[in-house]
Amino acid sequence: MNVADYVVSFLSANGVKHIFGYPGSPLIPLFAALERQSDVQWVLMRHENSAALAASAQAKMTGRLGVCVATSGPGAMNFVCGVVDAHLDGVPMLALTGLVPTASQGHWEFQDIDQTRVFGSILPRSASCIHPNQVPALLRNYVGHALQQHETVHLALPSDILSTEIDPADDLFRIDSKHLPRPLSLMPPPAEGLDIVAKELEQRDQMVIILGRRALGSGAAIEALAKKLGAPIITSLDGKGIADESHPNSLGVLGIFGFPAVETTKEILRQADAVLAFGVDTLKPFLTGDTDVQCRVLIECEAEFSTLTQEYYRTHTLVGPLDAIARELRDRVQGKADSSAIDALGQEREAYMQSIRRDESIYQDSNLAHPSTFLLRLNQHLDEHSTIVLDTGTHTLWAAQFLQLTKRQRVLVSSRLGTMGFSLPAAIAAQLSHPEHKVIAICGDGGFHMVIGELGTAVQYRLPIIVIIFNNGLLQNVSAQQTTPYGTVLNNPDFVALAHAFGTHGAVVDGTTDVDAVMQQAFENRDAPFVIDLRCDPRIVAPLSKWERSFAPVALA
């Protein structure tokens, strides 16, 4: 047994099922170790950044440790964007990189760089191993930190260290599953704390409930609490789908991603004097005014202490299982009978949807499609086993508004970093994590171009993901801010022909297409991806909305 075998065994014992990466000479001992076992699957991505994005997405999807691997020099440098995505979104991920042999470091060796200086500038922990006896402690400490603090960490392993023979019977290298690091799991808050918060909720004139990714599994209890309080539910983009979006209290996604700020919505938000947050990463848009000063009371609910906000004042804090907290609060509050504002909101939202449908009619029998028409049809084919992966771009705005997720489907996004090129690597990770799910990657033509090679990864691993490309030949989010579209026009290939070249299938969707027939084809049981080339009019700009923030500060104590 060598150090590389130990590393793989340690990761397997910690529940790691996949390692995403790209090979290089310093990593050959690690590949040999992976070949000698069958518990951890190596997933060959086409670029190191895609490997890091895939590992980040898997950690978001499962809550388990995501692992990615890259070689020395440029391989490690290509990691950076995906590593930062995981770091900013607060998911447990281990980035492993290869190093030239220890004796060759530090004196202009080919592809030798000081990786700890690079990754140490963006991550809380980064280390280069210089002795085999370091490996057990470094892995234990770094994986423990990642799991318990929801952090991304980096370890660099020289090739000579990886190939060093060790004695598995030595206490230093013995893997005891009872003593491996574990994520924290807290008990529900005490009854006294829940009573205090319930009383506070009843005293507030207008609550707004917000939820983010970490509220997964709490949607039904939060909906019941919202109904008793007469409070709207607003989600961050990464929390989309956690609550039933057909629920009358659901306002959809926050800010520019959500429904345009109709008058009823504006009025509800103007009157809101407090925010009850469940598992939300970015609280700024919910709490601050145009001057970035906190203007609303915050009651924060989190599953662990490590994810509590360090930026804003909390009137009350509840820490523990979020579903239990929501259920306990629901049972304690008396409720408010007046639902007129929520009812009015539903009527206005339906009127807005009718106006959009009128706009769609001009694209019937056209060689272009309206994005909302397509997404409203896609809704009919989604079930509780559907997972949606969104890239970053104009299509994100359309999807946030017109994908109505009513069966608590998962949504994966690059939330804080908002990087283009996220959806295809993330869809690969999601499909590997849940083979029984139908994974749909929604991206723009610009984002797809960045990771187009990963279509080969999906084909190689026989993954039945559906890739939907919003094809308008334009980097529209930038172009929309220009006087003329300078430097943002894309010369796109025939995406369906490209899919065929990769050995898979696809279809074009425009105003003449029977969308349901294409969907039935895409959703068939298959062992390869299906690419949908959605031909969109570049002149159509997704309707934007804004949180109305022109309000007076309220007392925070």
Quick summary:
This protein has helices at residues 3-13, 28-35, 48-62, 74-78, 80-88, 115-120, 135-149, 159-162, 191-203, 219-229, 263-271, 284-287, 322-332, 340-360, 371-379, 394-402, 423-433, 445-450, 454-460, 476-479, 495-501, 515-522, and strands spanning 18-21, 41-44, 66-70, 93-99, 125-128, 152-158, 207-211, 233-235, 250-253, 274-278, 297-302, 316-319, 386-390, 410-412, 438-444, 466-471, 505-509, 530-535. It has 557 residues and is α/β, with parallel strands linked by helices.
Record the SSE blueprint:
Blueprint: H1 3-13, E1 18-21, H2 28-35, E2 41-44, H3 48-62, E3 66-70, H4 74-78, H5 80-88, E4 93-99, H6 115-120, E5 125-128, H7 135-149, E6 152-158, H8 159-162, H9 191-203, E7 207-211, H10 219-229, E8 233-235, E9 250-253, H11 263-271, E10 274-278, H12 284-287, E11 297-302, E12 316-319, H13 322-332, H14 340-360, H15 371-379, E13 386-390, H16 394-402, E14 410-412, H17 423-433, E15 438-444, H18 445-450, H19 454-460, E16 466-471, H20 476-479, H21 495-501, E17 505-509, H22 515-522, E18 530-535
Helix pairs in contact: 1-2, 3-5, 3-17, 9-13, 10-13, 11-14, 15-16
Folded structure, characterized:
The chain is an alpha/beta fold and 557 residues long. The protein has 3 domains: 3-179, Thiamin diphosphate (ThDP)-binding fold, Pyr/PP domains (Rossmann fold), CATH 3.40.50; 191-345, TPP-binding domain (Rossmann fold); 369-535, Thiamin diphosphate (ThDP)-binding fold, Pyr/PP domains (Rossmann fold), CATH 3.40.50.970. It has 22 helices and 18 strands. It has helices spanning 3-13, 28-35, 48-62, 74-78, 80-88, 115-120, 135-149, 159-162, 191-203, 219-229, 263-271, 284-287, 322-332, 340-360, 371-379, 394-402, 423-433, 445-450, 454-460, 476-479, 495-501, 515-522, and strands at 18-21, 41-44, 66-70, 93-99, 125-128, 152-158, 207-211, 233-235, 250-253, 274-278, 297-302, 316-319, 386-390, 410-412, 438-444, 466-471, 505-509, 530-535. A 6-stranded parallel beta sheet has the order 2-1-3-4-6-5, sandwiched between helices. Helix 12 (284-287) links the parallel strand 10 and strand 11 (297-302). The protein is globular.
